[in-house]
User: What shape does this take?
Amino acid sequence: MTTIARRFAARPVRTSIEAWAAVRDALCQDNSPAAAEFDRIQGVASSVISSDLPAAHPFVFIGEGPRVRVFMVYDNQALEGEDLDESPLVSSPFQSSWTGWVPALPDEIELVQTHLRRMSDRFVAYNVDHDLPEPQASRQDRSLTLDREAMRRL
Amino acid sequence: MRTSVHVSVYTHSLNYVSDRMLRSIHQIIAASGLDVSIFIDQWAVVDRGLTTWMRTRDLQSVHLEIYDSDTDQLVTRWDLNVLYEAGGEDGGFHEDPEAILSAIVKAGHVPARCRYRILATTKEGRPDVEGWSTTSARSVDGMVRQSVGTAVASPDIQATAGYWRKP
Assistant: This one.
């Protein structure tokens, strides 16, 4: 399973809600239904970003193509632009069925999950102390596919 | 060139202070035993107010009012007072979450029947912000104010914290 990473500047370059909007714009691009799902959870996503949790525990998007991990960069690193990669995705994971995983501390996961469930069918909280469930291997996974992201980096 | 650099630093100060104030409010609500999901639902509106009024330098204070839903009386109120000047020794970006957390422990849990709302005190003539409406704060008569100290500091803006309690 190929994984793509993106790293977005948060505080103080952006407020948490601006950082989530930047993630939405880069990942969803012209996919309005996906962007609308991002907007539904902007409050809880902003509260997670303001907690600094995504510095080490990313938002993860699993759908079509590679898994996408989105980290946040804070403080001096954000100001200096270190290790940022806010480029739009070459291919969208949101074409059909997809899930967005939101990091949560063990003692907050129930709260975050309840809030997500109320707002969206697409987003789920994950306990940062545990790994995400691995996707079942599919017929598509066993065949060769072009890695557009790797090609872009050449 | 110097003007554009300062504008950029001011924006960073604004972003930093507003974000940390929102985080502090979140922590106070959660640690007080109240339903934080109501605040999360309002995050965008609160953020819009704080950033708009800090940009125009109209924001003076942000208040978290916690009141008894049975009597409508104030139980406690947390204040974040905004100063448009550098804070901290080096004029950089700093926060003191421990100061807020220690104060929350001292203030203690509030009764489960309590509700809360976010208020802002601004200068006259401030721009209107969608989602915010004019209101009056509940009375603090008979209450005592406890200072917490500087909660957030940045090159251009700082916020000091305090709370009102019954003696």
In short: Chain B has a mean pLDDT of 92. Residues 14 and 66 of chain B are 26 Å apart (CA to CA).
